[in-house]
């Protein structure tokens, strides 16, 4: 079996359904001082609750991995707006039963849902995430859009996490991505100062490819428009119907927010707001 840890803040809308989808005997919630009923709902559902001030996503996930009292050596890291499936659980149990000590992490994919539809093309699927982690073998880097790093081997799972990023409404999605764009702008400014890892664009490691592609994308003029064309046209996001079009437009707006914040901070007269 394996443990599950969920990061939360004001996730009363999601946490009950998330926990209900988890068929394991050890569920932990690391909460960033929610002001709603998140912790009460999670505790009533059998989860153990820990609290920590939020500073950034990498630090929060590392803190989650360092929590005491896990009952199992493997931990699945979920967000409250994600759901497990019986097929994913069965695959995890089967793969962990044969995983040797040389394996430190399993990657998996998500199915992003919007307006009742899986965004199979417009979301950039498939993107692989390191989520099933051997305790003591994995650390998390990058403050946003985190990277899970291990010196051990990495496996891949066929089944998916189901992701409902709009469960708290469109307004909350924009509120959250306004915060994300501020953090991403800081990372973007740093990445632009580093050389592009050209060889990694053809790497067999999907994490290395994704990182190199981001480095390249950060330098492209008209980046938000190019991302729209990539997702909606080249990746055939139009085949996801109206949800695909709306999502691609929102993704483009998010990328514009990042670029605007980089430009505003770079040319601001206030040293407090200036990026390196």
UniProtKB/TrEMBL annotation:
Q: Which InterPro entries match?
A: Glyco_trans_2-like, Nucleotide-diphossugar_trans
Q: Name one Pfam family in it.
A: Glycos_transf_2
Q: Which UniProt keywords apply?
A: Transferase
Segments forming domain Glycosyltransferase 2-like: 3-122
Transmembrane ranges, per UniProt, are none
UniProt KW Oxidoreductase keyword:
no
Q: Name one GO molecular function term.
A: transferase activity
Q: Tell me which family the UniProt entry assigns to this protein.
A: Belongs to the glycosyltransferase 2 family. WaaE/KdtX subfamily.
Task: Provide the protein name.
Answer: Glycosyltransferase family 2 protein
- This protein's species is Sphingomonas zeae
